[in-house]
TrEMBL record:
<keyword id="KW-0547">Nucleotide-binding</keyword>
<dbReference type="GO" id="GO:0005886">
    <property type="term" value="C:plasma membrane"/>
</dbReference>
<keyword id="KW-0813">Transport</keyword>
<feature type="domain" description="ABC transporter">
    <location>
        <begin position="2"/>
        <end position="233"/>
    </location>
</feature>
<dbReference type="Pfam" id="PF00005">
    <property type="entry name" value="ABC_tran"/>
</dbReference>
<dbReference type="GO" id="GO:0005524">
    <property type="term" value="F:ATP binding"/>
</dbReference>
<dbReference type="InterPro" id="IPR050166">
    <property type="entry name" value="ABC_transporter_ATP-bind"/>
</dbReference>
<dbReference type="InterPro" id="IPR027417">
    <property type="entry name" value="P-loop_NTPase"/>
</dbReference>
<dbReference type="InterPro" id="IPR017871">
    <property type="entry name" value="ABC_transporter-like_CS"/>
</dbReference>
<dbReference type="GO" id="GO:0016887">
    <property type="term" value="F:ATP hydrolysis activity"/>
</dbReference>
<keyword id="KW-0472">Membrane</keyword>
<keyword id="KW-0067">ATP-binding</keyword>
<dbReference type="InterPro" id="IPR003439">
    <property type="entry name" value="ABC_transporter-like_ATP-bd"/>
</dbReference>
<protein>
    <submittedName>
        <fullName>ABC transporter</fullName>
    </submittedName>
</protein>
<keyword id="KW-1003">Cell membrane</keyword>
<dbReference type="InterPro" id="IPR003593">
    <property type="entry name" value="AAA+_ATPase"/>
</dbReference>
Length: 256
């Protein structure tokens, strides 16, 4: 569904050039959830913006559903961390926003929006306005707006980063349920290792300066996943080891 082929990108500032992405290639199959995981500044958002058609690569190409990406398209929606809800529109009208350019009757648009709102558990809040909702609820509205459009691909740039643990876990579960129902393809950016292991079929681990993918890790755990199992911890540890963050490598060295 997504093909990234030999993509490179540099940013130029006065005479200096900063290579952010170096010759990255990977594929995401239809219905997969794949995560780009890496430290701050390694180029995750830049890569996602290139795939979404918001930024142009210096070299290489991106294809979504076999069509070359040259600009944002409605079959590939980007969900940013900032929810971008319009404060003067109700929840329902915010969700309908993405459908207004579609060839749908008013009634069809309404039904599509209300179905998506129900999927994220906000049926009772459809006529409320963003300022009347919590941050987590607003984020659910943004997710409903993306899903209402029934895109082939959803690109998510740290969509849950601003939420507390309870809301984050809850929304991760809802995302998995909706994704299973809609069979959407999701490419997610995060630096939350737990989130990556919980959601992903594969995790692409990035290194920085310049950004490269140095590991494509398949998470061979059935869904829904249990964060407390040894299998889950096994994958968390494998990733922590990649970043040399497991803590004491050899406890004997620390004994007197
Ligand atoms: N428009 C831009 N102009 C100049 N430099 C940029 C631009 N966008 C990103 N960069 C630089 O590219 C590098 C990668 O940024 P990017 O936002 O892609 O990283 P990231 O991995 O998503 O980081 P974070 O996890 O902190 O969001 C950074 O050094 C950043 O300063």
């Amino acid at each position: 569904m997504i093909q990234v082929k030999e993509v490179s990108k540099s940013f130029h500032k006065s005479s200096a050039s900063n290579q952010v992405i170096d010759n990255i290639s990977f594929e995401v199959k239809k219905g997969e959830i794949v995560t780009l995981l890496g430290k701050s500044g390694c180029g995750k958002s830049t890569l996602l913006n290139i795939i979404g058609g918001f930024t142009t690569a210096d070299s290489g190409n991106v294809f979504v559903d076999e069509h070359k990406v040259t600009r944002p398209k409605r079959n590939c929606i980007t969900l940013f961390q900032h929810r971008n809800l319009l404060p003067w529109r109700s929840v329902q009208k915010n969700v309908e926003l993405g459908l207004e350019k579609e060839d749908l009757s008013v009634q069809e648009r309404r039904v599509r929006a209300l179905n998506a709102i129900e999927l994220v558990g906000l049926k009772a809040n459809a006529q409320q306005f963003p300022h009347e909702l919590s941050g987590g609820m607003q984020q659910r509205v943004a997710i409903a707006r993306a899903f209402a459009m029934k895109p082939d691909v959803i690109l998510m740039d740290e969509p849950f980063a601003a939420l507390d643990t309870f809301n984050r876990y809850h929304l991760q579960d809802q995302l998995l349920k909706i994704q299973e129902k809609e069979k959407s393809t999701i490419l997610l950016v995060t630096h939350d290792i737990d989130e990556a292991v919980y959601l992903s079929d594969r995790i692409l681990i990035m290194s920085a300066h310049p950004g490269k993918i140095y590991k494509d890790l398949k998470i061979e755990l059935s869904k829904p996943r249990d964060r407390t199992t040894n299998d889950f911890h096994y994958f968390r540890k494998r990733i922590l080891d990649e970043f040399e963050l497991s803590g004491i490598q050899n406890p004997m060295e620390y004994m007197i």
